[in-house]
Write a structure and sequence with these properties.
The chain is mainly α. It has 16 helices and two strands. The protein has a two-stranded antiparallel sheet with strand order 1-2. The longest helix has about 30 residues. The protein is globular. The two termini are about 15 Å apart. The N terminus and C terminus are likely disordered.
Length: about 450
C-alpha cells in the first residue's frame, strides 16, 4: 500500500494514495449528506412554535434500511487505516506522540473553529434582528450535530499512538480489551446512564482498531472467510436485537454508541476488504481518481458545513411564505431533490472558500514542535465545550464559547514543523509524510 520509487530517481519517496479508501470515504460522505437532507423537516405550528421532525427516521420501513446504510463505523475503519500508516511514518522520521496529536488536532479543529465562529456570529445577529429565540435554538441544535462526530473522531485519533503500540504487541488482545470495555459500559448504563458516554471513546477506538488489521493485512483475505465474517457479525447483531438487548434502529444506537456499532464496524471492515478488487478498478479510472482526490481534501469541510447550511436553508423557508408540505407527504418527497440541489449550490462556494483550512499547515524550517504541555492543554481546551454540549445540549452561548476554545487551542498548537510534513528522513527510516496535493486520505 506504500510503494517506493526506484532508488536514484532523484525524487523524494512518497506513499501513494489508497484510492479505495478515498472512494469509500466519498461514498460515506455523500450518503450522509443525502440522508440528512431526507431527515431534516422543520414544522411551523399554528401557535407559532417551530419544531424539527425526523421524517425519514419516522418511517417504519427505514429501520431495516438504516441497518445497511449506517456507515459511520466505516469512517472510523478508514481513519484507523490511514492514521496507523501516518503514525508509523512519523515515528520513522523521529516524531513522537505529541507531534502526532498536534498535527491531528490542527487538521481537524481549524475548520471547526471557523465554522463555530461564523455560526455564532450569524445566529447572534439573527437574534438581534428579531428572529424568535426558539428558532435560533432549533438552528443551533441542528447545525451543531456534526460536532459530535468531530469530537468522537478526534478522541479516537488522539488515542491512536497508544493503541498502535498495543496493537504491535498484542493486536487481538487489544481489540478484545476494548470490546470488553464496550460491553461493560453497556451493562452498567442502565444503572448509571452517564456512563454510556464513555462508549463515545471505547466504541470508536475499537472500530478504529479494525482499520489497523486492514492496514496490516492480517484480516482474513479469502473471499469465503470475509463473507463468513460479514454473515456472523450480522447474525450476532440480529440476535442481540431479537433478544431485546438493543434497539434495531441504528440511529437510536448511534448517540451514545453501543456494541451494535462495533458489530456493524466488523461487518463493514470485512465488506470493504471483500470488495477491494472491484473498488480498486472503479477508483483507478482517471476521472474518478481526480474527482475523489479533490473531494478527499475537502471532506471535513463538507461534513462540518452541510448541516448548518441545511438548517439555515430550512429556517429561511420557515420564515417565508414558501409552500411547506407536511413531512412524509408526496409533495415533501418530491421536493427533496430540490433541497439537495440547493444545498449543493450552497456547499460549493463554502468548500472553495474554507476548504483550504484542511490543507496541512506548514511553517518555516526554524519552527519546533510544541511542548507536550501545550498540546495536552489544547486537547483539554477543545474537549471542555464538547463535553458540556454532550451532557447539557448545545446552546448559542456554548457555541460562542466553543469557538473561543477552539481558537485558543489553535494558538496553543501553533503550526506543524516542516520536518514533520516534508523532506527526507534519516537513512533507512522510510518515506516522509505525504504532501497534501498528492495524498488526500493519508493523514495527519
Amino acid at each position: 500500500m506504500v510503494p517506493r520509487q526506484p532508488a536514484g530517481s532523484g525524487q523524494a519517496l512518497r506513499p501513494d494514495r489508497d484510492l479505495v479508501i478515498d472512494l469509500a470515504r466519498f461514498f460515506c460522505l455523500a450518503l450522509v449528506v443525502v440522508s440528512h437532507t431526507m431527515m431534516v423537516s422543520p414544522v411551523l405550528h399554528p401557535d407559532g412554535t417551530v419544531t424539527s421532525d425526523n421524517t425519514l427516521g419516522n418511517q417504519h420501513w427505514f429501520e431495516p434500511v438504516v441497518w445497511v446504510l449506517q456507515v459511520m463505523p466505516l469512517f472510523f475503519v478508514a481513519g484507523g487505516i490511514t492514521g496507523l500508516q501516518s503514525w508509523r511514518r512519523l515515528r520513522a522520521r523521529g516524531g513522537n506522540t505529541f507531534d502526532y496529536m498536534q498535527a491531528r488536532m490542527l487538521r481537524l479543529i481549524r475548520p471547526a473553529a471557523v465554522l463555530l465562529a461564523i455560526m455564532f456570529t450569524a445566529l447572534w445577529a439573527a437574534l438581534l434582528a428579531g428572529v424568535d429565540p426558539q428558532v435560533i435554538q432549533l438552528l443551533v441544535s441542528g447545525a451543531g450535530m456534526p460536532l459530535w462526530f468531530l469530537a468522537a473522531y478526534l478522541a479516537a485519533q488522539l488515542n491512536l499512538p497508544l493503541l498502535a503500540r498495543l496493537h504491535a504487541r498484542a493486536p487481538w488482545l487489544t481489540l478484545a480489551g476494548l470490546t470488553s470495555l464496550v460491553i461493560a459500559v453497556d451493562c452498567l448504563r442502565g444503572v448509571m446512564p452517564m456512563l454510556a458516554y464513555l462508549n463515545m471513546v471505547f466504541v470508536w477506538c475499537a472500530v478504529q482498531q479494525l482499520g489497523f488489521f486492514l492496514a496490516d493485512g492480517t484480516l482474513a483475505r479469502g473471499r469465503i472467510a470475509l463473507a463468513g465474517i460479514v454473515l456472523a457479525s450480522n447474525l450476532v447483531l440480529g440476535l442481540l436485537v431479537w433478544l431485546g438487548l438493543y434497539s434495531g434502529n441504528m440511529l437510536v444506537n448511534l448517540n451514545p454508541p453501543n456494541l451494535t456499532l462495533l458489530l456493524l464496524g466488523i461487518s463493514q471492515a470485512a465488506t470493504l476488504q471483500l470488495l477491494r478488487p472491484a473498488l480498486t478498478r472503479v477508483a483507478s479510472l482517471t476521472s474518478m481518481r481526480r474527482f475523489i482526490g479533490l473531494a478527499g481534501r475537502r471532506s471535513m469541510t463538507v461534513y462540518l458545513w452541510h448541516l448548518p447550511l441545511l438548517a439555515a436553508l430550512s429556517g429561511l423557508l420557515v420564515l417565508t411564505d414558501f409552500p411547506q408540505p407536511a413531512g412524509g407527504t408526496a409533495a415533501w418527497w418530491w421536493g427533496r431533490p430540490l433541497v439537495l440541489l440547493a444545498l449543493t449550490g450552497l456547499l460549493l462556494p463554502v468548500v472553495a472558500l474554507f476548504g483550504r483550512l484542511e490543507e496541512r499547515p506548514t511553517s518555516p524550517g526554524t519552527a519546533r514542535s510544541r511542548p507536550a504541555a501545550a498540546v495536552v492543554t489544547a486537547a483539554v481546551v477543545v474537549f471542555v465545550p464538547v463535553a458540556d454540549a454532550a451532557l447539557n445540549g448545545l446552546t448559542l452561548g456554548l457555541l460562542g464559547g466553543g469557538a473561543a476554545c477552539f481558537a485558543l487551542a489553535v494558538l496553543l498548537l501553533g503550526r506543524i514543523p516542516v520536518r514533520l510534513v516534508a523532506g527526507p528522513g534519516p537513512a533507512g527510516s522510510g518515506p516522509p509524510l505525504p504532501r497534501p496535493p498528492l495524498s488526500a486520505n493519508v493523514e495527519p
